[in-house]
Design brief:
The complex is a heterodimer of chains A (318) and B (337).
Chain A (H helix, E strand, L loop, with lengths): L1 H26 L14 H8 L7 E3 L5 H6 L4 H8 L33 H15 L5 E6 L6 H12 L4 E7 L2 E2 L2 E2 H4 L16 E5 L3 H16 L5 E6 L18 H9 L1 H11 L5 H24 L5 H4 L8
Parallel strand pairs in A: 1-2, 2-3, 3-7, 6-7
Antiparallel strand pairs in A: 4-5
Helix pairs in contact in A: 1-2, 1-10, 1-11, 2-8, 4-11, 5-6
Chain B lengths: L1 E5 H15 L3 E6 L24 H4 L4 E4 L3 H12 L4 E8 L7 H7 L3 H4 L9 E6 L14 H5 L5 E3 L4 H13 L4 E6 L6 E5 L11 E4 L4 E5 L3 H14 L4 E5 L2 E3 L3 H11 L2 E4 L8 H12 L9 E3 L10 H7 L3 H14 L2
Parallel strand pairs in B: 2-3, 2-4, 4-5, 5-7, 6-7, 10-11, 10-13, 13-14
Antiparallel strand pairs in B: 1-8, 6-12, 9-11
Helix pairs in contact in B: 1-7, 3-4, 8-12, 9-10
Classes of the chains: A alpha/beta (318), B alpha/beta (337).
Chain lengths: 318, 337
C-alpha cells in the first residue's frame, strides 16, 4: 500500500505542478491557443487511473492534462505539445486540447463535449472481444452529462454489458454555466438508475474515496459485471480556460484551496497515520519540480514543426 | 471463378470472407439480428435492407445488434478500431449521419493527423444512399460530397457488384476511416463477381469505356447510366470515354485529366445535389488543370438543388437519366466540332 500511496502523491503532485506552471507560462503569452487546467481535480484522475494499466483505455475531456499524466503519458512530450513543438506527444498537431498516447491507452483530450463516452464503449468492446480483461474509462464533465452521446453511451454499455466506467467530473460549471442550473436532477449519478447500472457519488477532494469507488467499479467491470457511473464532485481552481475572468463565481475557489484541497488532505492523512513521512513527500515535491522545470526548458528549446509536416499523416500510403 | 450475383450479395460476401480471414473484423448496426432478444432473432434481418443477412449466425458474437443509437455505436466502432478491432458499422441511411456526424468528422478522421501520426483507426462505415425508391426527402440523399470534403476520411462509391466486393475488402483492410456508400437502387442489380477474395485499390479510377470525343465522369449509380448513354451516343458517331472514379477521396485526378486532354470535352454526372458536389469539384479541377485542352464548356448533369421529392412523377424528373447525359454529351461535342 505504501508504494501505491507514494505513487498517488507523485501523480497528484505532478498534475498540480504541471498545471500551476502552465498557468504561469500561459500568462507570458508564449503558449498558443486554448488551455483548460485541471488543478483541484487531481484526486479524480489519479484515484481512477491507479487501478488501470496498458490493457485499459481512457477517454478524456478538453481539461485533459491530469488524465494524461495519470495514465502515464510522458510529461516532456505533453509540455512540448502544449508549446506546439515537433517533439510534442502529437508532433505539434494536437495541442493542449488533443494530447493523446494510444500506446498508453490514452485516447486523447477531446475538444468535443461528450465526444469520449461512445469511444469508450468501443474500447471496452474490444477488450471484451479480445478477452484482455481490460476496461474502458470515460471521463466527462457535468456539461457532457447533458449530451446525447453520453446518454446513448450509458445505454449501449449497459445493453452490451461492457467493462466500462463512466466518470462524471462535476466541477460545478460547464464553461460558465453552473451544473446546479443545467443538470436536471440533484446528482448526475442519479441517472445511472435509468440505465440499469450502479451510480456512485464521491467527494472529489478525497483521493481515498475516489480510489475506493473506482476500485469497486474496475473490479466489477473486469469480472464481467458491467458498467458503473461515478460522479466526482469538486471545484476547479482555475477558470474554464486560461484568461477566463470567472465572473460567474466568487469565493468557492479560495474556500476549496484553503480547506478541501486534495493534496493537503492526502498529505495530512498519510503523515498522521504514519504511512508516509513528510521528508519523503518533500523529496517527491522536489523531483516533480525538477521534472516540470526540465520539461518547460526542453519544450521552449524544441523546434517547431515545419512545412514538411503540414500534409503528413492524413492518409496511410497504399 | 466468376458468377453472377447481386450488389447486395457481393457486399455480404466481402464481409463474410473478411470476417473468416481476420477475426478482428466485427460488424455492428441496427437490426443486424433483427428482433434481437425476441423470437425474430432466429430469422435475423441482416439490417433493414438485408445486406448482412446470415452473418449474425455465421459469426457468433461478432455481429452486434445495436439500439437505434447512431452516436453511440458509430462511436463505439471508432473506439474499438483504436484498440485493435476492425469494425464495420452500418449507418443505415446516409441521411441519418447528422445524429452521429461528430463521432465521424471530429473523432475518427482526426486521430491520425491530430495525434501526430500515432493513431490508426481502421473503421468502415457502410451506409446507404440515393434516390429512386420513392423514399422521400429523409431517406434518399446522396451525401457523399459532404464526407469527401472532410480530410482524413476515405470515401468509396461502388458502381456495381464487382466493384462493391473488391472495394469493400480493400476498405476493411485499410487503416484509416472509410465511408462506404452503397446505392439502395443498386442492391438488386447483378453482375459477374469472382468467388475468390480480391481488392481494388483506392484512388484508381476505372475507365469503363474508351472513347476519343467526350469524357463522361460518372459516380456510383450514375456509372451504368452513363455507359448506357455512351452506347447510344456511339450509334450517332460519338465515342464517349466513361470514367468511374470509384473513390471520391482520394480522387484519381490523373486519369480524369488525361482523358480530358485527349477528348477536349467533359460531362460530369453526379446524383448529389449540385452545389459543392463532385461535379463542381471535378469541373473545377479540369478548368484549372486542363483548361487549354477544353474545346467546349464543361457540362454537369445533376438533380435540381432541392430535397428529394416523394411522388414518382417528381422523383423521376429529379434523378439524372440517360437522356440528360446523352443531351449533355451531344451539346459539348456540337459546341465546337
Amino acid at each position: 500500500m505504501t508504494d501505491t500511496l507514494r505513487e498517488a502523491y507523485r501523480v497528484m503532485r505532478t498534475i498540480r505542478a504541471f498545471e500551476e506552471r502552465v498557468h504561469e507560462e500561459f500568462a507570458t503569452g508564449e503558449i498558443p491557443g486554448f488551455v483548460h487546467l485541471y488543478a483541484g481535480e487531481e484526486a479524480s484522475a489519479t484515484g481512477v487511473c491507479l487501478h488501470l494499466d496498458d490493457r485499459d483505455a481512457i477517454a478524456s475531456t478538453h481539461r485533459g492534462h491530469g488524465h494524461c499524466i495519470a495514465k502515464g503519458v510522458d510529461v516532456h512530450a505533453m509540455m512540448a505539445e502544449i508549446y506546439g513543438r515537433k517533439t510534442g506527444a502529437c508532433r505539434g498537431k494536437g495541442g493542449s486540447m488533443h494530447i493523446a498516447d494510444l500506446a498508453k491507452g490514452m485516447l486523447g483530450a477531446n475538444g468535443i463535449v461528450g465526444g469520449g463516452p461512445p469511444l469508450i464503449c468501443g474500447t471496452a468492446l474490444a477488450a471484451k472481444q479480445q478477452n484482455t480483461g481490460g476496461v474502458g474509462v470515460a471521463f466527462f464533465g457535468d456539461g457532457a452529462s447533458n449530451q446525447g452521446t453520453t446518454l446513448e453511451a450509458l445505454n449501449l454499455a449497459s445493453v452490451w454489458n461492457l467493462p466500462a466506467i463512466f466518470v462524471a467530473e462535476n466541477n460545478g460549471y460547464a464553461e460558465a454555466t453552473s451544473s446546479a442550473w443545467s443538470v436536471a436532477s440533484d446528482n448526475i449519478a442519479d441517472r445511472a438508475a435509468g440505465f440499469g447500472m450502479p451510480g456512485v457519488i464521491v467527494d472529489g477532494f478525497d483521493f481515498f474515496a475516489v480510489h475506493e469507488a473506482a476500485g469497486e467499479a474496475v473490479e466489477r467491470a473486469r469480472e464481467g459485471g458491467g458498467p458503473t457511473l461515478i460522479e466526482v464532485k469538486f471545484t476547479r481552481y482555475f477558470g474554464h480556460f486560461e484568461g477566463d475572468q470567472q465572473t460567474y463565481r466568487a469565493g468557492e475557489v479560495a474556500h476549496a484551496r484553503a480547506t478541501l484541497d486534495c493534496l493537503k488532505r492526502f498529505r495530512d492523512r498519510v503523515t498522521d497515520s504514519g504511512e508516509l513521512d513528510g521528508p519523503l513527500l518533500d523529496d517527491i515535491d522536489a523531483e516533480v519540480a525538477k521534472l516540470i522545470e526540465d520539461a518547460v526548458s526542453a519544450a521552449k528549446a524544441a523546434p517547431k514543426p515545419t512545412k514538411e509536416d503540414l500534409e503528413t499523416d492524413v492518409y496511410v500510403s497504399y | 471463378m466468376a458468377r453472377t450475383i447481386s450488389y447486395r450479395e457481393a457486399i455480404n460476401e466481402a464481409l463474410a470472407q473478411e470476417m473468416a480471414r481476420d477475426e478482428s473484423v466485427i460488424v455492428m448496426g441496427e437490426d443486424n439480428a433483427g428482433g434481437a432478444g425476441s423470437p425474430g432473432e432466429d430469422d435475423a434481418w441482416g439490417g433493414v435492407l438485408g445486406v448482412t443477412k446470415g452473418l449474425f449466425h455465421k459469426f457468433p458474437g461478432r455481429v452486434l445488434d445495436t439500439p437505434i443509437s447512431e452516436s453511440a455505436f458509430v462511436g463505439a466502432a471508432i473506439g474499438a478500431a483504436t484498440r485493435g478491432q476492425r469494425p464495420v458499422a452500418e449507418l443505415m441511411f446516409i441521411d441519418f449521419m447528422g445524429v452521429c456526424f461528430d463521432q465521424i468528422f471530429n473523432q475518427a478522421v482526426k486521430f491520425r493527423y491530430m495525434f501526430g501520426g500515432n493513431a490508426r483507426t481502421p473503421v468502415v462505415i457502410r451506409t446507404m444512399y440515393g434516390a429512386g425508391l420513392r423514399a422521400a426527402a429523409q431517406h434518399s440523399q446522396c451525401l457523399y460530397p459532404i464526407f469527401t470534403h472532410i480530410p482524413g476520411l476515405k470515401v468509396v462509391v461502388p458502381s456495381n457488384p464487382y466493384e462493391a466486393k473488391g472495394l469493400l475488402i480493400q476498405s476493411i483492410r485499410d487503416d484509416d476511416p472509410v465511408i462506404f456508400c452503397e446505392h439502395k437502387a443498386l442492391y438488386d442489380t447483378s453482375g459477374e463477381v469472382p468467388e475468390d477474395s480480391y481488392t481494388i485499390p483506392f484512388g484508381e479510377a476505372n475507365v469503363v469505356r474508351d472513347g476519343d470525343d467526350v469524357t463522361i465522369v460518372a459516380i456510383g449509380r450514375m456509372v451504368a447510366m452513363a455507359e448506357g448513354a455512351a452506347n447510344d451516343l456511339a450509334a450517332s458517331g460519338i465515342e464517349a470515354e466513361v470514367i468511374d472514379p470509384r473513390t471520391t477521396s482520394p480522387l484519381d485526378t490523373e486519369t480524369i485529366l488525361e482523358s480530358v486532354e485527349k477528348t477536349g470535352r467533359l460531362v460530369v454526372v453526379d446524383e448529389a445535389s449540385p452545389r459543392c458536389n463532385l461535379a463542381t469539384d471535378i469541373s473545377a479541377l479540369v478548368a484549372k488543370e486542363a483548361f487549354g485542352s477544353l474545346r467546349a464548356p464543361i457540362e454537369m448533369v445533376t438533380p435540381p438543388h432541392t430535397p428529394v421529392p416523394f411522388s414518382d412523377a417528381l422523383e423521376d424528373l429529379y434523378i439524372p437519366d440517360a437522356q440528360k447525359v446523352l443531351n449533355a454529351a451531344k451539346a459539348v461535342v456540337e459546341y465546337r466540332r
